[in-house]
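G., the chain you wanted modeled:
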Amino acid sequence: MSEVQQTVIYEQAMDLNFLDEVYRIPGGEKIKDCIQCGTCSGSCPVSWAMEETPRKIFAMIRAGMRDKVLDSITIWTCASCYQCMHRCPQEIKITDIMYMLKRMAIRENRQRSKNAAALSRNFFNIVNKKGRNHETSLMMKVVLGTKPLDGINLAPVGLGLVMHNRLPMFGKKIRDIEGLRKIVAKAKELGGE
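Predicted structure as tokens:
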């Protein structure tokens, strides 16, 4: 393959606008300051479960690898512990950037984001209704809403958990549910998603 053909293939694989989009994220322009020291990856308690470490995600962003970044499990694995941000010598808001990458993936309807969006939406609806999460309802809604046939395989596990009082059938409502709803409404008013 000639050098020209390799260049054309490389440019087709790159999304040349992706880096500019990420730079427009509040704090995203700080990615330019990343020195690839690995402190973020070394500080991350869940980096062992990631396909790519945060450091590699930043390198992929710089290389215009939109699909690889937004389809990565890494952005969904982030534990939001803020250790990477706290320890970054360049003061890059890594966790905030991970959240924005998740939002980009959701807006683009990426496959992994569909599952995460279903989990997030159902979690919010349950908490908004009762004031706290109810794991049984959440599992059922997410499984049935994303991969209904998997529910058949999971039914014996769920039934066993219910039979051994490990999975409550009914959730309990908090006392001041209206107070919680006012807080959520105010957060939305201030621009929360």
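DSSP finds twelve helices and no strands in the chain.

Shout if anything looks off.
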